[in-house]
Write a structure and sequence with these properties.
By secondary structure, this protein is an alpha/beta fold. It has 10 helices and 7 strands.
Length: about 240
């Protein structure tokens, strides 16, 4: 990660007086992460994905409305649900493809079990604009860039920008890649590319964190390679909509 950017981001955070970053998570957050009802496969990923530290970095507060972008299996939906508490709301954007499997029943069941999650089976472009306090996209942006190019990458982050309220924040997490490597095949993306598009769509970079870095991953293997154990070296940007 770029040390200058990380330091600059921290300075911006102090200058803007973002008190949200000092807010504590709900008292029962850790208890919910350890709950017997939470799948063991999800818990097994906690060491690498650091749910508590990631939520603290994003500054999530109880009562917020947050969006889980391209929610997939719902790992982050569960984490966000615990972070915003019963008075908050998680909009889990699964997209229309999820409806192809039993009309999205698995996603509906997950939402019902959490109580404060609403499954959304629409594209991000059709999500309600200006309604979210925060958003998370994890391990998705590389596909938008690698397979849909400039137009796809711009649209992906612009949709997140549009769903946020003014002052809203987002966490952009992805498998880090090396410039010049076959990142399409490796399902990775260099941090410099992500940074470029963050700025292009109008976000301010609050911080570029090394929280999810893993020095054991040298970026030479596919992000899905079994030897990595789902613990890739990951970039994490915290960004803000002005």
């Amino acid at each position: 990660m770029n040390t200058f950017v990380k330091k600059a981001g921290f300075a911006v955070m102090l200058t803007l007086g973002l008190s949200t970053f000092a807010m504590a998570l709900p008292a029962d957050f850790a208890e919910k992460m350890a709950s017997p009802s939470r799948p063991q496969a999800d818990k097994d990923r906690d060491a690498a994905r650091k749910p508590m530290e990631t939520m603290e970095a994003l500054g999530v507060q109880e009562g917020w409305t947050v969006v889980d972008v391209s929610a997939g299996g719902g790992w982050f939906s569960t984490v966000l649900s615990a972070a915003v508490g019963p008075q908050g709301k998680v909009l889990s954007q699964f997209g229309a493809r999820a409806l192809q499997n039993n009309n999205g029943q698995a996603q509906r069941d997950l939402a019902a079990s959490l109580g404060n999650v609403e499954p959304m089976f629409v594209p991000m472009a059709e999500m309600p604009a200006g309604t979210a306090d925060a958003a998370v996209t994890a391990l998705n942006f590389h596909d938008a860039f690698n397979f849909r190019g400039d137009e796809g990458a711009t649209a992906f982050l612009a949709d997140i920008f549009n769903v946020l309220k003014s002052g809203g924040v987002a966490a952009i997490i992805d498998h880090e890649g090396t410039a010049g490597a076959a990142n399409n095949d490796l399902h990775r993306i260099p941090a410099a590319v992500v940074r470029e598009y963050i700025v292009k769509v109008g976000f301010e970079i609050v911080t570029e964190s090394d929280l999810l870095n893993n020095a054991a991953d040298d970026h030479s293997l596919s992000s899905s390679d079994d030897s990595l154990g789902q613990a890739t070296d990951q970039l994490l940007f915290i960004v803000k909509k002005p």
